[in-house]
Description:
The chain has helices at residues 12-18, 24-33, 35-44, 46-50, 56-65, 74-88, 104-114, 148-159, 163-167, 171-190, and strands at 5-10, 90-91, 142-146, 193-198.
Amino acid sequence: MSFALTPYVVDLDVLHASVGSNDDKLRRMIGGRFKQHLDFDDSQFDHVTDEGGPSIRDAIRAVIEGGPFDERYGFMYGYAYKWICEFHGRFLDNSDFSPMRAGWLETVDEGLKELGVSAVSVTGLSYGGPPSPIPSSGIESGCGEWSLEECQKALEQWEAVTDEAKSDLDPYVLEAAQSAMEWCRTAATVGRGVAGFFS
Length: 199
């Protein structure tokens, strides 16, 4: 079984403020920009609506309105939050993290720690949950964030890594670690954070 980590550079304050904002214009803009994608999601989750659960558009509405939520379908609200993040943010290259095997994030984190980078962890982008009051999505997916300050600190730590230390690392792990640092660099350049979604 393979997994994916999908990162975005995004203003985390704006992202968080969207939850419970009652911003109907935002909801309509998301629906317009991602119409085909949302139609595809609905076709993939038609069993949810058949059971009386929310469509992806209903889930987006609930997240923006701050509820009501049906706890049985927490994963749908997780997907809705991801679409809100995609609207506000910009997708970052995840080719070193999609597809990936189980345990890959932990392996990359071990490599980062060996190099002295501890301010961020890629597992930290995967095993958390969305902000309150969005219900937990359970085991189907997870999400997490790196603040701007964490990204800046990670870059400082990365700059101190010697070429010799990098050469001692498994080349695939090094490549993934470099990708993660590029996420930090992009975030630091635009003064934003990173949000990640694991699936």
